[in-house]
Amino acid sequence: MKTRLLVPFATALAGFALGWALKPAVEMPAATAGQADAAPSATRSTSGDRSAATKSRASLTEVPGAQLPPDDARQAELEHRATMQKAFKDAALQRDRGKLLRVAEALRLDEAQLAQLEAMLVEQRHAKAPVGAEDFLKQDPKASLDAIIQSAKENDAKFRALLTPEQDAALTAMRGRQSENQVETRAHVNLYQLFVERALQLVRPGGRIGLVAPSGLVSDAGAAPLRRYLFDRAEIDEITGFDNRQAIFPVHRSVRFVLLTCTTGRETTAIRCRFGLGRPEELETPARAPLVLSRRFLARLSGEDDLGVPELATDADLAIVEAVSASAPRLGAKEGWHAAFGRELNASDDRESFAPSGQYATCRPVIEGKQIDAFRVAIGSSRLVVRPSAAANRRIPRRARLAYRDVASATNRLTLIAAIIPARAVTTHTLFCLRTPLPLATQRVLCALLNSYVANYVIRLRVNTHVTVSLVSRLPVPVVHPGNPRFTRLERCAETLARRNDPVEEMEEYAEIQAVAAHLYRLTPAQFEHVLSTFPLVPSEVREHAFERFINLH
């Protein structure tokens, strides 16, 4: 891909997303059966509520209120109507007509409304219909999309003008229930997910797709259903990952992007990947060969239901991830810690339960994400407390529990930051708390492992801006049982770090935890040294001390 095409490519992709968001409320069939076989249509397909019913094919040739073109174009109009009439005879399109009729019945459209709706559809089909996919690619994409967007605005307004207030409300409710997008989601839908799925629907088998998208497409747990859909329906050639430190895109510099190309009609078995690029020029002069990640490897690492692609930049990264995934079970697995995390309160939704901290001196303080650092909780800086009468007092257990920050980035000093929340406190949505009842000593050991450089290194291979519960549940974490000498060492160090006020990174116990954790993950000295090198914001003397302790650990 030429460098100069990167920005126009992103612009066209954004335009396609905008065209999707503003698609018409109603739409006629895009092509005859023959045309459908020749090439896919660039028309947005619609769900039942975006269609309209007709009572007979004959009405298509004599539509009350339809505006005819000038006389010199009358022949073209007649030919156009004949083509539409033929299209309606196609068996597949008859099914769409059934959908149109059901929507009309659901909205209880009368005869006059049906006739006016038909006139709108014929006019739209004549004047606004997008061209086929092959022609679409040859023309200026922006101009074509502008026509689609304008058609959507005009016809949606015209259609709603035909409806009574009751019918309009019914249409709004219907649109809320139905969606073209067939892929389920695990979280809120991001815009890129909609047009990635749409691209797969539009392109015929053997067709090519190129995308510029946020890296969440290949890494976010919330995009896992779409990722499986993509892997099953297209063979991904290559994924190239960019960070935004050099402001390639006019968004926050912590956001990362991927360039993805694929061929539809056959599933993905292996992917060539290049991550860690920072400038478009690196596309032209790759510094290293891409890594090849098999689908089997991704399934072993994160599960067949997830298939998350870690952002591995070098062969050393690949070797470390393979070693870590082989040496430790996932945190949420039954054979592992079987630990589950979740939120307790929401700062907005539960605001009626809160009061200023000075109003009730003995009430439970509210802890936010910004109040915790590795091993420590700044409970004295709480701005809010829970009112005595609030239901949250009864719902949230009064026991110490491990928590970690939700909001983080792979480019931060550290990404996974955990501490033990005191029993008397409650937390908001910017923290995830341990729901599994584990003994306090066991929680301290788990807190130590989550705060390790190795756990941070692994989690940041997939984190964008949030450390989600799903990502943490799939994080490989070594299991250490009570009675094991390393359990005792980790528990003692974590308790000391939480209790004292000295800077955490300067304490001997912190280096001890890092060394023990690296040994539990079965890293070699070279691998641990590489892990430490990926934390440039941590002072070099802190990293060197952790490595020295690792070498001398017995």
What does this structure look like?
The structure is a single chain. Helix content is 43%, strand content 12%. The protein has helices at residues 6-21, 33-38, 74-88, 91-107, 111-127, 133-138, 141-162, 165-177, 191-202, 216-219, 224-233, 295-302, 315-327, 392-395, 440-450, 453-459, 469-473, 485-499, 508-520, 525-533, 540-552; strands at residues 208-214, 234-243, 256-264, 270-277, 291-294, 341-342, 354-356, 366-367, 372-373, 376-377, 384-386, 401-405, 418-421, 426-427, 431-434. It has three domains: 22-177, no CATH class; 191-313, Rossmann fold; 341-552, Adenine-n6-DNA-methyltransferase TaqI, Chain A, domain 2, CATH 3.90.220. The strands form five sheets. A five-stranded mixed sheet has the order 1-3-2-4-5. The protein has a four-stranded antiparallel sheet with strand order 6-15-12-13, covered by helices on one side. A two-stranded antiparallel sheet has the order 7-11. The protein is globular and about 90 Å long. It is built from 21 helices and 15 strands. The chain is of the alpha+beta class and 554 residues long. Mean pLDDT is 78; it is low at 1-69 and 125-153.
